[in-house]
Amino acid sequence: MPTSDSERCEAKKLKTEAQHMSTEENGEVPSSPDKAQLKYGELVVLGYNGSLPYGEKGRRKTRFTLFKRAAANGVKPSTHHIAKTPQASKIVADKSHHSVSYTLSRNQTVVVEYVRDEDTDMFQIGRSTEPPIDFVVIDTVPGNKTAEDCKVQQSTISRFACRIVVERNPTHTARIYAAGFDSSNNIFLGERATKWKRPDSSMDGLTTNGVLIMHPTGGFSQECKAGVWREVSVCGGIYSLRETRPNPQRGKLIDDESNVLHDGTLIDLCGATLLWRSSAGLQKTPTHKHIEELRREINAARPQCPVGLNTLAFPTRSRTSKVAVSLGEERERQPYVYLNCGHVHGHHLWGQKENENGDRECPMCRTVGPYVPLYMGNEPAFYVDCGPPTHAFCPCGHVCSEQTARYWAQVPLPHGVHAFHAACPFCATQLTGEQGFIKLIFQNDIGT
Which CA distances in Å does 433 have to 343, 370, 377, 406? Predict the structure, then answer.
């Protein structure tokens, strides 16, 4: 029986790509119905604990798997043309051609024609539900969500936010570009959009709120650290951040960095943040089955509440929500934690303080602080190792391995048009406290 984290990862059986996600769900046709498709990687939306609160439907879900397409659909820039307006260009009017239009003034537009690239596959992400979008993304609302919570008055995510282009041949390098082609196969950068002429006389530009990326240093593993956030341009250039997301002044060109996606790269669309997991990286990641086994191991140890002396048990994935906690029998078994000390209890009314925060006094150490239910972190892609679930994020109570908690607690995630803060990857709640997480202390642990 494997005992170390690495042995557990190596021992688990990976399912085939067809088992992870059907080709029908992905909107792709398999190149050979008898063979599993080649998987390039996966995009996972931060802030969801394994699924959307209203269910995974079609192209709107928390996870999108990029498979090799039956036929290449990638495009690459070719020639550029000068026109009075984008509509005056024959290329823009021809829906069989892809193009990017840069409006310089009312009377001058540079139209860059894109031609087919038989060596690449293209995948598009955005808020639009139109056919060109492969992965529909909506604004992430922090907290343990219900379907009603996910309704946003005004989205800041672009309808055609970005595109990922993957080489069909080994090593299947994936690159990200700002903006996506619309239903007419066009990208329009209006007169007010940030755009410029590069040294080679070609055009480039940025989208209104920008597409930001961050590569972790040290790979997505126990040793990884947060990298530096950059902005990617329409043509894939890497720039330092603007003062605010919609600022018309672009940042400085970063020559020694690229738009190539690495395992663990974060992609921010100003309203939702995506995590890129490469196919190779996913093989070292725990599976849902592995996380379920860890949950059962904790429950099998029959941890007890020091006050009520009742046995505690983490609920299954299907019951991991505040709605389930409100049920009587479930609530009695639900583990709770005092966030300022880490002592784990069951639900009880002992030690309530008369303040607005609803703080409690821990009966074990008399520490006063928040008292919240614990939930297993059920999205495997967010884990940096296969370690046991010994730590919880503050203040949400999502439980994961120590190294996973340490990594996400030091990652500044974009918030709004200019702010950054660390957040729980399972619910997007801003982290609080000195570290942003707490080590869990079960009654069985005391005195050991």
Answer: 16, 11, 19, 13
